[in-house]
Amino acid sequence: QGPNGGANAGRRKGSNPNTTDELVLSQKNHRLAKELSDLRVRHREECKVVSRLTMENMNLASRCREAIAQVAALKKEVHMYQKRQNEWQTQMQQLQREQHHHNSAGDNGRKKHSRQNSANADSQENATLSKRSSSPTTDLDRIMSQQFS
Questions:
Q1: How far, in Å, are 14, 71, 81, 87 from residue 76 at the CA level?
Q2: Which residue among 7, 78, 79, 86 is the one 20 to 30 A from 70 at the CA level?
Q3: pLDDT tens across 15-65, in order?
């Protein structure tokens, strides 16, 4: 039976390490299970955040598309107004040439009277235009004044 106390003593030593190993493994298993549970909770929370951010991103993308479409429509409108303004300017120049040609055919008295009326009309038109440009009344007027200022 020897110095270690015989066969029973050997079994006690043998069963002690097994119980210790089982205890260590059980603690490790418990710790890993808790860590897994915490990771699952964190994953669930992060999924909620990702879903919320995805929805916000889609909302912002939609608003950007709407804004881009509105800008495109406003650009078309500005182009149309610029074209109309150029046409009016051309007509105005043509009318002024015709008026000048008509006035040059008349006598001096009519020329002076016509020039005074023309100057008065020009000054009234310039005053009206300056009022319009200094105080825009519509969104398009504001945009035009900002773009060309």
A1: 91, 9, 9, 16
A2: 86
A3: 566 889 999 999 999 999 999 999 999 999 999 999 999 999 999 999 999
List all residues 6 or more positions away from 118 whose beta carbon is below 8 Å from its beta carbon. 99
Which own/partner contact pairs does 21-27 have at CB distance under 8 Å and 24+ positions apart? none
What are the angstrom distances between the C-alpha of 71 and each of 58, 75, 83, 139?
Answer: 20, 6, 18, 12
Residue 141: partners with Cβ closer than 8 Å, 6 or more residues away: 132
Dihedrals φ, ψ of 98, to 5°?
-65, -40
Residue 148 DSSP label:
-
23, amino acid identity: L
Model pTM score: 0.44
Question: Comparing C-alpha atoms, which of 79, 92, 84 is closest to residue 144?
Answer: 79
Count of alpha carbons within 13 Å of 88, Cβ hemisphere only?
6
